[in-house]
């Protein structure tokens, strides 16, 4: 099997140059024609990089992790796809760590040994409220993606408040007053998210009481079950604002199952703008979250932090907006 030494000899360059080119990093100091010559030599010789050897030699693995609490929903699948595209375009590889995995030690395991990743993009990581980074935090660069406010760490903050305010104004402008909110479980100390904050603020403005219904989960079944219970009650809402599009699609199914019309009898609004919502009947009014931009920003912050661990902490706020479709 060809080695870096073999490739360096064939291309007429140093082993350090070969390492830079084939790792995809620090290419700014390598002339394009030199990089092309190295790649051509590596291909002709059948060179394959060994990630374990590279990690030992350079102190980097060329791998970053995307840590997520959930993987099964369309919104999160979209995040994974766009994260992979951003990371691989820069010459890195991406692994996905499920939320059940230990947050403090994200890693890849090419064989039996365990090696740390070079950095971590974390969606709503534990301890994001107040950002108290203790022993349970990774010792690699971390970028958080969150809709909460946080300090002390590079963050891409999804501004769902503006989109949620647009959603509530949209419903109120159309004369809806008995507006329910289908969200997750409530409990003492439960953080009020921007969607719920906009909902409560709008109802206070018109003097209506909040109508929060906890779902069994933020997925289709949870929305369907909660909406069935809600729409079978003696007093029925004329609009439902849902935590996400999957809950909204479940709520639409519940309304149709009960012989109700959407939006004539009950208007329904979701959040995230997943593709399925565009093709449902009726199509779902939703808050658009620009996932591609979110992941591009996250990778840009992480790559800069990997190269310069001492750089100032940065927060990038990504706006959201309402897309009106026939469900409302």
What is the arithmetic mean of pLDDT?
A: 85
The number of helical segments is: 11
Spatial order of strands in the largest sheet: 2-1-5-6-7-13
Summarize the helix and strand pattern as letters.
HHHHEHEEEEEEHEHEHEHEHEHEE
Shape: elongated
In brief, what are we looking at here?
The protein is 39% helix and 18% strand. It is of the alpha/beta class and 328 residues long.
Q: What does it look like?
A:
This protein has 328 residues and is of the alpha/beta class. It contains 11 helices and 14 strands. The strands form 4 sheets. Strands 2-1-5-6-7-13 form a 6-stranded parallel beta sheet. Strands 9-8-10-11 form a 4-stranded parallel beta sheet, sandwiched between helices. Helix 1 (4-11) crosses helix 2 (15-23), helix 5 crosses helix 11 and helix 6 (160-173) packs parallel to helix 7 (194-206). The longest helix is centred in the last third of the chain and has 17 residues, at 291-307. The N and C termini lie far apart (62 Å). The mean pLDDT is 85.
């Amino acid at each position: 099997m060809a080695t870096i030494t073999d490739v360096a000899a064939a291309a007429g360059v140093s082993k350090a140059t070969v390492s830079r080119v084939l790792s995809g990093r620090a290419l700014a100091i390598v002339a394009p024609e030199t990089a092309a010559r190295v790649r051509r030599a590596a291909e002709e010789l059948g060179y394959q990089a060994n990630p374990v050897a590279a990690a030992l030699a350079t102190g980097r693995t060329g791998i970053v992790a995307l840590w997520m609490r959930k993987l099964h929903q369309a919104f999160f699948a979209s995040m994974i796809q766009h994260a992979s595209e951003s990371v691989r375009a820069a010459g890195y590889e991406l692994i996905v760590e499920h939320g059940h995995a230990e947050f403090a030690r994200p890693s890849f395991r090419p064989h039996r040994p365990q090696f740390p990743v070079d950095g971590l993009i974390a969606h709503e990581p534990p301890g994001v409220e107040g950002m108290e980074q203790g022993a349970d935090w990774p010792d690699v660069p971390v970028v958080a993606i969150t809709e909460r406010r946080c300090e002390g760490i590079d963050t891409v903050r999804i501004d769902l408040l503006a989109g949620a305010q647009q959603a509530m104004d949209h419903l109120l402008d159309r004369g809806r007053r008995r507006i329910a909110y289908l969200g997750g479980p409530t409990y003492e100390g439960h953080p009020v998210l921007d969607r719920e904050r906009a909902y409560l603020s709008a109802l206070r403005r018109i003097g209506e009481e909040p109508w929060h219904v906890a779902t069994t989960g933020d997925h289709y079944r949870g929305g369907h079950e909660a909406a069935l219970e809600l729409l079978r009650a003696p007093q029925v809402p004329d609009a439902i604002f849902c935590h996400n599009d999957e809950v909204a699609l479940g709520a639409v199914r519940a309304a149709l199952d009960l012989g109700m019309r959407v939006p004539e009898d009950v208007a329904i609004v979701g959040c995230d703008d997943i593709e399925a919502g565009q093709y449902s009947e009726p199509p779902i009014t939703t808050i658009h979250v620009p996932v591609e931009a979110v992941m591009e920003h996250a990778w840009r912050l992480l790559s800069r932090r990997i190269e310069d661990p001492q750089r100032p902490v940065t927060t990038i706020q990504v706006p959201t907006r309402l897309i009106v479709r026939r469900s409302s």
